[in-house]
Amino acid sequence: MRVTSRRAFLARALSSAVAAGWITSCRTPAVGGGAVFENARRSGTLRVGIANEKPYGYVDGNGTLQGAMVELLKAVLAPYGIIHIDAQIADFNALVPSLLAKRIDLIGAGMFIRPSRCGNIAFSDPVSRIGGSFLVKKGNPKNLHRLGDVTRQPSVKIGTQPGVDQQQEVVQSGVSPEQIVLFSKDTEALAGLQAGRVDAIYFPALEVNGLLATNGDAGLERAEPFEQPAGANGKPIYHYQAFGLRLEDRDLLAAVNRSLATLLASGKLLGILGPFGYTESDMPPAGIVAADICSGQQAG
Questions:
Q1: What is the DSSP pairing of strand 180-182 with strand 158-160?
Q2: Whole-model pTM?
Q3: Interacting residues of 174 by C-beta distance below 8 A, sequence separation 6+
Q4: Each residue of 84-105: pLDDT tens digit?
């Protein structure tokens, strides 16, 4: 019954969003022939995959397409006359397969650039630099401030989402499989923490802030301080969010990167992302490009 209700809600939300104008129907056929960028400029529409997760890209209760990556993408595409987003909602771990199967033309879910992904898809230059964080019960009863605190307490269970970088970090830190609980969405992980199924959940700090703000549960808090896991170079690991594209769509990639460079240099990038919880420290350092991150040169 719960699944049916959720699907019904999404169906109603998408129908309302279609009428709002920024989302076109998911059944809208792609324009045939030519490059994706040329077709998008001709039609004024680009098919974009989102995971329906705050604060990156989601459909709110009024059926309106919202989110940090959504607003940024509008600003990125507008100079080229692409003014409509044909939003395709999918689970996060289905976004890359959807892109490769040409059901979408761009991933707009705040995906992290990861070397293991770079062989399959192209990434725009980074739009942010984000660290991770624990969300725990008030008072942090298990005293969890780093992944090492989980490995030292075999009874502790930690929750995260499959396919995200935090899952990889938890595994690489030496946390045993028996201690890891995977949830399909961050909101389900939050519910698991509230229900006592896990002692902490591990997500990007921005996402943790959003969960706290949206849920308003006074019995939860961010674990402070929190020590970022270190990479092979000994530096703290940070993750760089970007838009994902197919490797062959070079014209679209170049256009996206041109717009991003302009927004970053002008300071408008923070102006767009700031209302969604991003701060100056979350902005990507100047000069870092996707190729550097894909090669592993910018792990920290």
A1: parallel
A2: 0.71
A3: 151
A4: 999 999 999 999 999 999 999 9
How far, in Å, are 201, 245, 273, 282 from residue 161 at the CA level?
9, 22, 23, 22
Q: What is the DSSP letter of 121?
A: S
- DSSP-derived 3-state class of residue 255: helix
Do the Cβ atoms of 240 and 129 come closer than 8 Å? yes
Q: How far apart are CA 35 and CA 204, in angstroms?
A: 34
- For residue 254, give the 3-state DSSP assignment: helix
Over the stretch 157-203, which tens digit does the pLDDT of each residue have?
999 999 888 998 999 999 999 999 999 999 999 999 999 999 999 99
If one counts every other C-beta atom within 10 angstroms of the C-beta of residue 102, the result is 11
Output the six-digit token pair for 159. 């929750």
Give the dihedral sign, CA 166/217/185/278.
Answer: negative
- The separation between CA 8 and the C-alpha centre of its own chain, rounded to angstroms, equals 24
Angle value at C-alpha 73, between 132 and 112, nearest 5 degrees: 25
How does pLDDT run across 7-41, given as a tens digit for each residue?
444 444 444 444 344 444 333 434 444 599 999 99
| pLDDT of 262 above 50 | yes
Conformation bin of residue 291: beta by default, left when phi > 0, alpha when psi is -120 to 50: alpha
User: Per this entry, what is the length of the chain?
Assistant: 300
DSSP E strand stretches across 73-140: 84-89, 106-112, 122-123, 128-130, 132-137
**Taking 80 as the threshold, does the pLDDT of residue 252 lie above it?**
yes
Residue 297 — pLDDT band, cuts 50, 70, 90?
Answer: low
Q: What is the C-alpha separation between 285 and 264, in angstroms, rounded?
A: 10
Contact 240, 282 (CB under 8 A): no
Query: How many Cβ atoms are within 10 Å of 14's Cβ, its own excluded?
Result: 19
Cβ atoms within 10 Å of 85's Cβ, excluding its own: 24
Q: What is the token pair recorded at 289?
A: 């490009």
Amino acid at 15: S
64 DSSP assignment? -
